[in-house]
Amino acid sequence: MSSYFTDLAQQYIDGEWRPGTGAWDVIDFNPYDDEKLASVTIATAGEVDQAYRAAARAQKEWAAVNRYARRAVLDKALRLLEEREEHIAEAIVAELGGTRLKAGFELHLAKEFLRESAHLALAPEGHILPSPVDGKENRVHREPAGVVGVIGPFNFPFFLALKSVAPALALGNGVVLKPHQDTPVVGGTLIAKIFEDAGLPPGVLNVVITDIAEIGDAFIEHPVPKVVSFTGSDEVGRHVATVCASLFKRAVLELGGNSALVVLDDADVDYAVDAAVFSRYVHQGQVCMAANRILVDRAVADEFTAKFVAKVRTLRAGDPRDPETVIGPVINSRQADHLAGVVEQALAEGATALVHGARTGNLVEPSVVTGLPAGSALLRQEVFGPVAFLVPFDGEEEAVRLVNDTPYGLSGAVHTGDVERGVRFARRIDTGMFHVNDGTVHDEPIVPFGGEKHSGVGRLNGDTWLDAFTTTKWISVQHGRSRFPF
């Protein structure tokens, strides 16, 4: 596996694999045992420029390629993904500490979204609209945006990079991808290798492994990209949005969340427990849609809490290579330190830890905290790790108020014995997505995905990919003669 990483620990620019020329290296570690997987000399701002110039040059020819031929490249990429699935799963386990279950989940999503992206290559180019002017025909064409800059995250790096890269390519764009420094291979060069082997022409997709300490804002300020698709924290997303707005670029932002899973008084408690445990602890809670807060009506709070705590205590933490492991390591020591501090802060504010997970290196065992003061900042922020906050409430009105009392609005769920009651509840929540009688962590290839408030701008998936990665042009044709006033 280490040679697998070493082979891909390079920059991929204009169809060439080469080292960067920056002043230092990104060291790629296994977060579970600190094994060094590879080192990558970072790309400079000059190499970012080369990548964008290559994409701009290649994009013109790629956009002119027959749409069926474009689809064939994505179909081949899907077949290669399927053929290499076991190797990619092992890479996910090694580079980001994902469990075998998580690797399978990520690869399932990646295949579904790549399949849908291939269909997107044949999306209608435009349509004809009527005109109030006699003899006029209005044609509205969809054209590729041009070059798209994609900045990927560390938590689902393979899937979430593909989620922008694949549809952008299918629609005739060039792409430059910058993966997260903690996942440079799974989130970057592995994707480049698949598309290279699938026959994508050189220069259409480029991958630069670098850091803002080296390039500053060069990746988003560069004049070539017309769209920047960023997945990550709201703090960085705000900066990306500000820079893009100042340069009249389109920003597509998939940012953090502080989702709540709500258990109403008529819910199936056992089922709600299962949904809540998965929604909080999948991939160690390092999921933007994870249920940070679990809100439970006091009528069922005692029963729910006892069963929730009992189930959490069964979650096995340890080596992510072990198929029995449910909780693997968090991505790095900074995150592990932060999570330990979150629990300590909660206890200092008067909360009680019903489960207080130990920490060993980057392995942070699950914690369950209750009794946080209503005004605690912890209840309003994203906690990217295996720490659950249980919050009791009295009736639906209080539940709605508590769910909305956060700057975020990404996902959420409500459990109830009355589906339409759940739908009415969901309609009152300020969020981009909400689920009735299910978990909070969902993504599907044709359903608009995105958040409100600090959770993002824009949507991805299905028809919304067209809005993200194409632009429209109005061409009118006058078949008769217009009358002019002078």
Name the poorly predicted regions: none
Structural class: alpha/beta
Write down the Rg.
24 Å
- The shape is globular
Mean pLDDT: 96
Structural notes for this entry:
It is a single chain. The chain is an alpha/beta fold. Helix content is 40%, strand content 22%. The chain is built from 16 helices and 24 strands. It has helices spanning 2-8, 45-64, 67-83, 85-96, 100-120, 157-170, 185-197, 212-215, 218-221, 234-246, 269-281, 298-312, 333-348, 395-404, 419-427, 464-469; strands at 11-13, 16-18, 25-29, 36-41, 126-129, 136-144, 147-151, 174-178, 205-207, 227-231, 250-254, 259-263, 291-297, 352-355, 359-360, 363-364, 367-370, 387-393, 408-409, 412-415, 435-436, 452-453, 456-457, 470-478. Helix 3 runs antiparallel to helix 5 (100-120), helix 6 packs parallel to helix 7 and helix 11 (269-281) crosses helix 12.
Describe this structure in a few short sentences.
This protein is of the alpha/beta class and 486 residues long. 40% of the residues lie in helices and 22% in strands. The radius of gyration is 24 Å and the shape is globular.
